[in-house]
């Protein structure tokens, strides 16, 4: 419970903290609120300008009236309740809310952890800040999983999450005629939000079969709220006459300087495009998402155990109390496997109760509320597993690649080059292919192409694990020059 | 002097400059959101293939939307909140 160091002339966050929560989405907000209610002193850190993370992404508080986004959201009542709780604790000084702060690494220290952040709230200045606490909760969420296709690097092709973040964060519609593709329930709220803001959503191309959900009826029946949510989106899509084409994939985008035509095709049972089914659709915007990849940047360097998330990705391994294998380190939300906001809220609350227990705080909630939250976690995890099985990455998706399709966007490495580097068989692995081709060695450090490269060259039975990165966000040497408390062994630089 | 009346009654939208040209924005928008709202989805050229790039992931993960802000290179336009008077330059390539 040492004092946070202020290394850049910031107004001091002088209160010592018991818990640092990284990520202010549903999991982080719920965890911070529960920990604060239990008497802990908490620092809540997020790179965004407002509370909410991606799910409840909002314009910054001071300008919220200028960009109405409330109708694009789900379960705002919970968001408002959590905001009010956090605001009350901020007034008493027990919550230190650090928005616009990018955490670039965490490290173990003698009495807990150091959390290294950069304040980017007043650009172009950057100020380094080091927080110390005996407990850290990583609730950094996830990002869209991408599978390349010819033309996916054309301007106008965005991730589905990117389209949604423009809508929720700034009220901006990225184009007029939009085709969405990929797999998973997330495509539906994106389609609904685009339509609500005046875009024409020409088609939603869902790779999975329409009957896929019915193979796992039990978890669906135990989550009636999810049915209601899905029915709401279905109603919106019907109202705007948005066709959802199942067993269909986006297999190409064409255009000069911006996408003008999207090619779609029916997909066979193995996910390969069926010959003779290709359609050409005029569109200026494409949104693609194949589920999500847990954001483990801060957890990997700490060496916590990982687990197969069951959807082709790797997540933090946690016990029933959301404890990772590293004492004092907790994870909640999508970092433990993608499962949605309701699950993240429950996991955040369970994690906070564990922190209260482990730090022997007096304000621990009773056994019954905890049992209810744990039942909620189990129910929503089962639902997430059913969703993952209903919306898999198609086994033979790479059939729509051509040799000259860009796979690594940063280093502009083609599918042909990746395949040639991987011809020695699955033992080669995506890390060796990275060394041979530079795929995954650019600015994004493989976040965009990693899952695809893994599929192309590695053993598909193994889930994708992102490369261990020491630096979760590039930090200027200037900001670091202020920092006297770098974790030993780190060499923070921007990627080359 | 109707012009003078109009000037006091109509608040001026804040603006930053993109390669010297003013671009108005809605307060709270990121640089990327303001650019996309003006119809621009690409503002950078790749170093190898000289391909146009701009907004892709929208949440700071892909680094496709890099711009220079007030002389500081390699800034993700999707994460930097637009402020009046900022000088944004684009198209410098992706070598940071």
From TrEMBL, chain B:
The keyword Oxidoreductase applies. This is (2Fe-2S)-binding protein. The keyword Oxidoreductase applies. It holds the Pfam family Fer2_4. Gene3D superfamilies: 2Fe-2S iron-sulphur cluster binding domain, sarcosine oxidase, alpha subunit, N-terminal domain (3.10.20.440). InterPro entries: 2Fe-2S-bd_N, 2Fe-2S_ferredoxin-like_sf. Keywords: Oxidoreductase. The lineage of its organism: Bacteria, Bacillati, Actinomycetota, Actinomycetes, Kitasatosporales. It comes from Streptomyces sindenensis.
């Amino acid at each position: 419970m040492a004092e946070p160091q202020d290394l850049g002339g910031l107004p001091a966050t002088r209160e010592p903290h018991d818990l640092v929560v990284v990520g202010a989405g549903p999991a982080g907000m719920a965890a911070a609120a529960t920990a604060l209610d239990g008497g802990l002193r908490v620092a809540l850190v997020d790179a965004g300008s407002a509370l909410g993370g991606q799910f409840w992404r909002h314009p910054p508080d001071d300008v919220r009236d200028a960009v109405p986004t409330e109708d694009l959201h789900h379960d705002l009542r919970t968001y408002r309740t959590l905001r009010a709780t956090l605001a009350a604790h901020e007034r008493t000084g027990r919550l230190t809310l650090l928005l616009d702060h990018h955490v670039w690494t965490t490290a173990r220290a003698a009495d807990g952890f150091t959390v290294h952040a950069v304040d980017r709230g007043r650009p172009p200045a950057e100020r380094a800040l080091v927080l110390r606490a005996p407990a850290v909760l990583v609730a950094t969420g996830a990002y869209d999983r991408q599978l390349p296709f010819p033309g996916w690097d054309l301007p106008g092709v965005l991730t589905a999450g990117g389209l949604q973040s423009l809508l929720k964060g700034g009220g901006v519609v990225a184009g007029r005629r939009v085709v969405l593709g990929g797999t998973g329930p997330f495509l539906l709220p994106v389609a609904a939000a685009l339509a609500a803001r005046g875009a024409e959503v020409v088609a939603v191309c869902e790779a999975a079969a329409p009957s896929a959900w019915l193979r796992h009826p039990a978890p669906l029946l135990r989550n009636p709220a999810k049915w209601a949510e899905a029915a709401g989106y279905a109603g919106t899509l019907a109202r705007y006459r948005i066709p959802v084409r199942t067993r269909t994939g986006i297999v190409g985008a064409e255009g000069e300087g911006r996408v003008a035509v999207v090619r779609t095709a029916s997909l066979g049972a193995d996910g390969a495009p069926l010959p003779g089914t290709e359609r050409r659709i005029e569109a200026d915007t494409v949104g693609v998402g194949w589920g999500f990849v847990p954001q483990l940047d801060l957890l990997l360097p700490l060496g916590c155990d990982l687990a197969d998330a069951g959807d082709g990705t790797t997540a933090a391994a946690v016990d029933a109390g959301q404890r990772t294998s590293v004492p004092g380190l907790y994870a909640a939300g999508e970092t433990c496997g993608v499962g949605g906001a309701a699950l993240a809220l429950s996991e955040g609350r369970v994690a906070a109760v564990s922190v209260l227990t482990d730090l022997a705080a007096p304000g621990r909630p009773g056994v019954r509320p905890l049992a209810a939250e744990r039942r909620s976690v189990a129910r929503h995890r089962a639902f997430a597993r059913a969703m993952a099985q209903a919306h898999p990455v198609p086994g033979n998706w790479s059939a729509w690649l051509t040799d000259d399709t860009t796979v690594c966007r940063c280093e502009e490495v083609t599918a042909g080059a990746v395949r040639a580097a991987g011809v020695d068989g699955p033992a080669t692995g995506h890390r060796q292919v990275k060394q041979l081709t530079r795929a995954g060695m650019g600015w994004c450090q493989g976040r965009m192409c990693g899952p695809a490269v893994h599929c192309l060259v590695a053993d598909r039975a193994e889930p994708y694990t992102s490369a261990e990165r020491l630096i979760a966000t590039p930090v200027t040497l200037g900001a670091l020059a202020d920092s006297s408390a770098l974790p030993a062994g780190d060499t923070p630089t921007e990627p080359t | 002097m109707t012009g003078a009346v109009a000037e006091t009654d109509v608040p001026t939208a804040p603006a930053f400059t993109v390669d010297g040209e003013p671009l108005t924005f809605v307060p709270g928008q990121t640089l990327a959101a303001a650019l996309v709202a003006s119809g621009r989805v690409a503002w950078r050229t790749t170093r190898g293939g000289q391909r146009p790039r701009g907004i892709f992931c929208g949440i700071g993960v892909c680094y496709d939307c890099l711009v220079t802000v007030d002389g500081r290179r390699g800034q993700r336009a999707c994460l930097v909140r637009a402020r009046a008077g900022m000088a944004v330059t684009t198209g410098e390539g992706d070598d940071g």
